[in-house]
Amino acid sequence: MATMADVARRAGVSAKTVSNVLSGYPYIRESTRARVLAAVDDLGYEINVTARILRSGRSGLIGLAVPELGQPYFGELADEILAAARRHGLHVLIQPTGFTREGELGALREPRRRLVDGLVFSPAALDQSDAHLLENLDYPLVLLGEQMFSRHVDHVTMHNVEGVRAATDLLLDVGRRSIAAIGMLHATTAGSAALRYLGYREALGARGIAVDERLLGWADDGWHRANGARAMAAVLDSGVEVDGVVAFNDALALGAMFELQVRGRSIPGDVAVVGFDDIEDARYSVPALTTVDPGRREIADVAVDLLRARLDEVPGATRRPPVLHVADLRLVERESTPARAS
Amino acid sequence: MATMADVARRAGVSAKTVSNVLSGYPYIRESTRARVLAAVDDLGYEINVTARILRSGRSGLIGLAVPELGQPYFGELADEILAAARRHGLHVLIQPTGFTREGELGALREPRRRLVDGLVFSPAALDQSDAHLLENLDYPLVLLGEQMFSRHVDHVTMHNVEGVRAATDLLLDVGRRSIAAIGMLHATTAGSAALRYLGYREALGARGIAVDERLLGWADDGWHRANGARAMAAVLDSGVEVDGVVAFNDALALGAMFELQVRGRSIPGDVAVVGFDDIEDARYSVPALTTVDPGRREIADVAVDLLRARLDEVPGATRRPPVLHVADLRLVERESTPARAS
DNA sequence: ATGAAAGCGCTAACAA
DNA sequence: TTGTTAGCGCTTTCAT
């Protein structure tokens, strides 16, 4: 395969000049540039990126660590991150962590192997006690979609608590009082599940309603549809009355709706349902799902911008203090909940 | 940041010995290995993968080019490919091509830049006239999920035609005669759309039914739910009678079901619906969607195996002739179609 | 505006 | 079982 030296020889210039042309260095005579590009074309030359990275120390690749692409939320998020990165000439290496601690620790080691310049990381298995693992890293890191881990790291997060609280308030506003929470996890103490449960509890508490344990639907195997259906079934089987459902993500909500309809409950007549994420499916379920749009596009844009800013920081100079960006969130009312009396 | 030389110094060995330990070379005294690993640990050393790739010429990375991760079929497929690769110690660099010709041509150039050793490619924008672009490449390539492009390239495909034909036959078997086809594309002549349409036409033809143009639902903007709903609406608005729907993928089917239900048609009573892909959503839609399982897991496994075999081929020796693997496919009957009289 | 020399960090090839 | 030497292909630094 042709190397830069081959191109240089053919164009009658030095390798450095070829390098200059290919990396957009401006002070090159137009005729020289043309000859170089012609030689590149003739030889079908493609630059060897590993050599370039090794020498320059920068890859233009950013890592994206998410649990699983098959979950529409993360698949759609990955597409948004990729698009944002591309707008700035960056590429993305995706590392699914499989919801495992091991996977997440592996992703955190990756930038030190020098293939990616920095990392956008959406933790799902690590918890607050691991905060120290995210500090004092020697590469740029942006954390996504979770609560604060550390004041020393850039975060792009969403109003988890307020989002679920608003969702629950909507159900309360339309008169529902037996509201199930679908998506409880035993494992984490401070992850999305805990925060979203908090929003649920706060909303009930503000109206003096106690949490009924029988209304809590557990989904320790992950926030998939199957588990939403299963958790809903468990709640219904407990014999408790249910007239509303707050699910901690849309997949759970869709699974729960499935189970409700299988059992002949009408939505929203018998049971009103709210989700979280606003994935594409939510718009086309039957009935269309009322849900919380967490501002995925904004999250992706801001995350990439924060990372870029860190990548451009000069080592010596004082660095910008860590940022906590909370994306705007919006309750999207559709058919799975009755209209509020206005 | 520590280099291999630093580790070597600390362990009192040569750099080559460190290299040997880290790459699993077996003939090393146990005590030496222990000392090296201790030094690695002490220094928090991580290998520089770009240097390793540059020197060895192999990266252990395979490229995966798919249109878009937000589409559940591709998100789920990506997870399967990643899992299959990991089982063999390979990593995956995902390149979404955005359904564009430019994106796909870019992905095809990537391995020549030497970061990935080979490519698993699911084309969506290229067509038969581009077959020559896929031949005589100087790296291993496996094509996915489409028709044959060239006898000179490994393919892992599915029974597109037979799958849709079986789906259409099911509808015909239960007495439906006005069957809409959702997902027609003007652009491609030999892509999935064309093949799936062919299956539809064949099934009708075998029973002497002519294709009614008004029953063809176009989705040139992509096989998303929104377009399934839109195409279904267009068909219904044409005034033609409809008692069955064959959608060319599940997202389209779910969108079509949404539109049908919005208009008060019962499923499967008034209209029976069949999809293609068996994404997770299909199991939990209301009603649960009858669909064609294309054998995604098998496709991923076989694709990675074929690529691995090519990567291991010795340059001089005669190479295995190209393989065309057609994954097994299964019609999954759920609630969106009536049971067949047996 | 272009070139020459050096070296990024690792492993192939060979030697011991 | 371990070490030495060389060099992968590029960009940095410095020179002109």
UniProtKB/TrEMBL annotation, chains A, B:
Spell out the molecular function terms from Gene Ontology: DNA-binding transcription factor activity; transcription cis-regulatory region binding
SUPFAM superfamilies named in the record: lambda repressor-like DNA-binding domains, Periplasmic binding protein-like I
- Asked whether the UniProt record includes Transcription regulation among its keywords, one would answer yes
Per the record, the coiled-coil ranges are none
Under InterPro entries, the record lists: HTH_LacI, LacI/GalR-like_sensor, Lambda_DNA-bd_dom_sf, Peripla_BP_I
Ranges where the HTH lacI-type domain occurs: 2-56
- Keyword check for Transcription, yes or no: yes
UniProt KW keywords: DNA-binding, Transcription, Transcription regulation
Q: Which domain of life is it from?
A: Bacteria
Q: What is this protein called?
A: LacI family transcriptional regulator
